[in-house]
Specification:
Elements (H helix, E strand, L loop, with lengths): L2 E2 H8 L2 E3 L5 E2 L1 E2 L9 E4 L6 H4 L6 E5 L13 E5 L2 H15 L5 E2 L4 E2 L4 E2 L4 E2 L4 E2 L4 E2 L4 E2 L4 E2 L4 E2 L4 E2 L4 E2 L4 E2 L4 E2 L4 E4 L4 E3 L5 E3 L5 E4 L4 E2 L4 E3 L5 E4 L4 E2 L4 E2 L4 E2 L4 E2 L4 E2 L4 E2 L4 E2 L4 E2 L4 E2 L4 E2 L4 E2 L9 E3 L4 E2 H20 L6
Amino acid sequence: MEKTASELAQMLGGSVSGNPDAVVCCLGKIESASEGELTFLSNPKYEKYIYDCGASIAIVANDFEPSSDLPESLTLIKVNDPYSSFALLLQAYEQINKRQPGVDATAIIHKGAKVGEGCHIGTGVIIEDGAEVGAYSELRAGVYIGKNAILGERCLLFSGVQILDKCSLGNDCTVQSNTVIGSEGFGFTPKDDGSYSKIPQIGNVVIEDNCDIGAGCTIDRATLGSTLIKKGCKLDNLIQIAHNVEIGEYTVIAAQSGIAGSTILGKNCLIGGQVGFAGHLKIADGSKFGAKTGVSKNITTPDTILQGIPAMPMRAYQKFQIGLRSLVKDFYNNKDSNK
């Protein structure tokens, strides 16, 4: 991607301060960018780096006024929102790096499968009988698509993703490496002799349009019916979604969180890292959970902020922490604390 400052300014609706013919071919961090790279400044705490910046072009806010001399080789592009503008360039760069349409010679596609036009089917991909891959989707090396699974249009599956039998993804979904969609749910029933009998999991997973799933996630198929992730959800890496869970529209979940079976999360929820949900719960729309929260009861009031184990409203959690610290302080100030 080789662009001049004037071309980039036109693309972003900004203005050039410096050399309009400055050329960049790649993107870089403001702390370490070098000649030929484009960077951006949106957070004031990183401003100190721009005065030593080796980049050829930097995107800054319209109201940015340097407090010291800038490098002579640095050209500025001034825009309304540097972060959003840089995000647009990242998206354009990602499009340039997309794999070309075609089917690798090592891919195995069952004669009963359907692959839409303009798809990239990479090295070692396996597509089973009855599966459907939508147009312009990209399946990178080692992807597995199970029997009767459905993948929508313009999806991107990174290497090692497995979409197992009967599961479906909507349009414009991205799934990062080594995620498994449709693994068997954790279902066992105790027997008289103390052992366990497995309960077959015969449902599937349904993921709607515009969802992003991180790397190393496991989303279990339902016992009956569907585990459901509704449109616009964003899941970070290393997340476990158990059987028959439902996640509402535009909910965002950070890494290492886990949701036990049959729990229903409302729409527009925000889940911090390492949050755990017990099974068979109902969580109201707009609920927000701080990192490492343990949720064991239904949350019925929308837009509540919760934290702690067990989960409690944020203000109650803050009071609890103040009280706990007071107890600890009293304990260590007590000369007889070891008795």
